[in-house]
């Protein structure tokens, strides 16, 4: 072992040790957060939380039915908006991205939107929609979070389609298939599990967003299915209840936070499982 090898070996050991230390610190804080969340939120997970609406200030009992229903409505509408737009845009980027300057600009803007603060998107929707119609609404909230979900679906679809072997495309072209059919019936079908993974990741991404909904959907203490009016949602209810002086509201906030965390965790596990299964097929 010469001096150069020993120096490189020690540098390697120091780098590995620092990496393990950083990982351990991150895991410790993550476990601390999850332990606190489970310890305080588990007691609030009762049947009443799923069948009763949010209580009035100072009242005991109550639940989060209206907030859960509102979140499902807005996230569902956002998925219906973002999925076709994101998949079609991803197909365009994968199929024509090397030939068009517009596609390159679109990919660049998509990358910017992936890292854009969600509060900026909420303020944007407030300025162009809420301020003009002069009222908050579930549709505005759905539009805001769909703008967050679209870049995730676009980039995932684009990346998945680029993994399709060129030989598969060439075989389809040799059989006389037009380009649009090769893109949709061959390439997209070959990576459908990866595209579904992107949609699930987008849902997980928008499920806990609070800032855009504060500017768009606001909140509603009562149960409402009217998407053209202010609508309750879990993130905003958690934010408001956690800052309140009432013990019952704070308990419901912990329960709602645990529910959102478990839902996002489940979506991430499901998306990774689907993608893992696709890789090994």
Low-pLDDT segments, ≥5 res: none
Helix fraction, binned, reads over 70%
Indicate the mean pLDDT.
90
The rounded Rg comes to 23 Å
CATH architecture descriptor text of the largest domain? Orthogonal Bundle
CATH class of the largest domain: Mainly Alpha
Q: Helical segment tally? A: 12
Distance between the termini: 45 Å
Describe the sheet with the most strands: none
Shape category: globular
Order of helices and strands: HHHHHHHHHHHH
Count of individual beta strands: 0
β-strand amount: under 5%
CATH-wise, what's the superfamily of the largest domain?
A: MetI-like
**CATH-defined topology of the largest domain:** MetI-like fold
Derived from helix and strand composition plus strand pairing, the structural class reads: mainly alpha
- Please, how many domains? 2
């Amino acid at each position: 072992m010469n001096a150069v090898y020993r120096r490189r070996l020690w540098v390697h050991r120091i780098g590995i040790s620092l990496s393990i230390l950083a990982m351990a610190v991150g895991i410790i804080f993550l476990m601390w957060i999850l332990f606190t969340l489970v310890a305080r939120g588990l007691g609030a997970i009762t049947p009443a939380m799923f069948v009763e609406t949010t209580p009035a200030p100072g009242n005991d009992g109550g639940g989060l039915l209206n907030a859960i229903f509102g979140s499902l409505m807005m996230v569902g509408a956002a998925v219906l908006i973002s999925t076709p737009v994101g998949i079609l845009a991803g197909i365009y980027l994968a199929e024509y991205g090397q030939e068009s300057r517009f596609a390159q600009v679109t990919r660049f803007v998509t990358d910017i939107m992936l890292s854009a603060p969600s509060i900026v998107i909420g303020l944007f929707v407030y300025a162009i929609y809420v301020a003009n119609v002069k009222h908050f609404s579930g549709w505005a909230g759905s539009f805001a979070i769909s703008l967050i979900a679209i870049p995730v679906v676009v980039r995932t679809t684009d990346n998945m389609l680029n993994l399709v072997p060129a030989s598969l495309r060439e075989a389809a072209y040799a059989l006389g298939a037009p380009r649009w059919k090769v893109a949709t019936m061959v390439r997209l079908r070959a990576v459908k599990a990866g595209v579904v993974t992107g949609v699930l990741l987008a849902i997980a991404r928008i499920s806990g967003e609070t800032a855009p909904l504060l500017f768009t959907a606001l909140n509603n203490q009562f149960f409402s299915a009217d998407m053209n009016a202010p609508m309750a949602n879990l993130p905003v209810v958690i934010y408001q209840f956690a800052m309140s002086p009432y013990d019952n509201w704070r308990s419901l906030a912990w329960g709602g936070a645990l529910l959102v965390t478990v839902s996002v965790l489940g979506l991430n596990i499901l998306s990774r499982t689907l993608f893992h299964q696709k890789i090994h097929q």
